[in-house]
Design goal:
The complex is a heterotrimer. By secondary structure, chain A is mostly helical. Chain A has helices spanning about 10-20, 25-55, 75-100, 105, 110-125, 130-150, 155-185, 190-195, 205-220, 230-235, 240-265, 270-290, 295-315, 320-350, 360-365, 365-380, 390-400, 405-430, 450-475, 475-490, 495-500; strands spanning about 60, 70-75. Classes of the chains: A mainly alpha, B mainly alpha, C mainly alpha. Chain B: Pfam families: Oxidored_q2 (PF00420).
Amino acid sequence: MTNDIIILPLVVHFFLSILLMFFWNKLNFQKIVSVVGNAVALGVAIWAFTFVYNNGTQIVESGDWPAPFGIVFVGDMLAVTLVLLTAIAGFAVSIFSTISVIKARLRFGYFSVFHFLLLGLNGAFLTGDIFNLYVWFEIIIISSFVLISIGGEKSQLEGAVKYFALNFFASMIFLTALGVLYGLVGTLNMADISLKIAEVKDTTLVEISAVLFLVGFGIKSAIFPLYFWLPASYHTPPSAVSAIFAGLLTKVGVYALIRIFTLIYGGDSFLTILLLTLAIMTIFSGGVGAIIQNNIKKVFMYFIICHIGFMIGGLALFTEVAMAGVIFYLIHDIIIKTNLFLISGLIYRIKGTTNMKKLGGLYANYPKLSLLMAIPLFSLIGIPPLSGFWPKISLILASFNAQEYWFFGALIFGSLITLIVIAKLWSEVFWKNQPEISFPEKFIYFNQLRFGQKFTFIFPIAFLTFVTLYIGFGAEHIQQLSQRIATELINNELYIDAVLKR
Amino acid sequence: MEIILAVITGVLYASGIYMILRRSMVKLILGIILLGNGVNLLIFLLGRITKGEPPIIDSAEKVLEGVYADPIPQALILTAIVISFGLQSFAIILVKRTYKVLKTDDLDQLNTTDEDS
Amino acid sequence: MRTIILKSASSYLLPVLLLFSVFILLRGHYLPGGGFVGGLVAAIAFVLDAFSNGLDKAKKILKFHPGFLMPVGLMIAFLSGISPMLLADLPMMTGIWAENPIPVIGAIGSPLFFDIGVYLVVIGSSLTIIFTISESV
């Protein structure tokens, strides 16, 4: 069965996570297995990606039950692209974790849970069944609860309580929406729902379920009035954990919104206005939040919120150009946000703090490293040949075509505020002289590490920066890919035909 | 039957959300449990309750005859119950640890993460 | 809670409940039952023992940490889940059944092993949770 390739990433991560549970106390072995396993998963993801790229959408009917009755896994271009990005981010973060996460945390099964999280992410991207999507979301949040509270520091536990309460609430709303939807259409397969929802006469209930989905996924992806858990919790765990959360957890909410609102509730005028308003407010509040923060991690957290707005707004416009922009931005954002939090971890290791007021002189001490860190920071702003620039062209073009000038203004505002904050960050952290503060004594600083350890710190950042550079300079390929995905998303018959084999 | 279940669902949702909005962490857990039960009942209710036979086709026939019950809502509820069992036990341990470290049950005291550091 | 009645009853109830849990596990093909319920019954057997004889005695009966059952059960379930892919060229999770049923146990197939995996995971996880909560009082 050749189409089984698309579920191989799931099999690999599930196997690794079980294997690591058997070797609970052998930390060095765990590190090796995790890094090697992530390399294997990356290879498998590339294989699955090229297979789907060449042969079109693949489906796997688990249990050999035909499509509307059993649970199907659908590997369309969007899903396999995100699986590939998950594998890239997972590979980088697992290498970074081996050196940056302390032993006391690793001893609580850090790597095993980490692979469970990646399993959940891959499953959520690949599934074609809406209740199965809920189950994968639960796997994701259970693993993320463990990762966020592992170590049990005071701030971590506080963050974990907030994170837990709101994410659990979001899951319950998601489940409510699912119940309403099942009551309306009597099926759980997303392709089948898409066909049957057109026949439902009671459009009010359809819209209610749509708004419930929006609230549920909105909490998870941190859009405007629902994002408050994110700045309260994401900076508390170690940087490696923050990186995988920032890169992938909010994006899986965005993925679910894209999937639901293209496949099931496509082009509803009420939802368009609602999504667009929320997007503008998200960009605005995220940007304003980023300006006033002094901690690097918190600045990056508000950028997550700000840039989620770009994607939600593009989704609301619902044209092919806008969707291409959204997909390109998603690809760029996953890599860059993961990298930013790895960078904040490196800065913390160099200086022992992430507070901008206490930082300084990084460029004088580490010019080459600063250059390496400059590339992702400039890509985030979207300095032209780098990766953040290209999706914004599509988004701005689409907002002009749709005559949505408020969203156009918000896009410009978001980019400008990113520029201002990054400029401030650059001058405070890299150019300013080191202020006179007392450094903690017991801390192991970066320049006290051996060469191999330093390399382990820098390699993942360099790897992700290389990917970012490829996205920037090979924008033609990514644009082609995004356009293909956008076409598939807008013409959802392709997806439905592939799943139901019509 | 539907009316009773609808009222109970509503009461469970309302009391669950009310409990989540309280300031105590223990009440947060109680709210989560109540809300989870409310959602399960809602799925049960929306899956159309019938006093039917189990949907098993006899070997002599090709299609289902007569009134039969939909098994899917029950499968969904079972899955949701298992998941919320895991989440609730995690929540209890988390809240216990938090209480031990912070020596408070008041959610309003959990504000050190918002401070500038 | 340590009354003489509960104490003497629990020493008889433990094997009976464990046997009952296996019965429920094997009954789960076509009748109510299965791995999850069976696992909970087995976990309750040990919890009852911990109630009457104390946590340490219950742990001694178990001989190993209950958390160890989780990876074992997950591995069994995982292998039975992917076995159709490896053995019969079918999509994952497809039930493959042996032709002749075995007396007492019934039909043997990959879903049975999946259920056994679930059974072990449920015992392991629920006992770990309950022991952790009761230890840290």
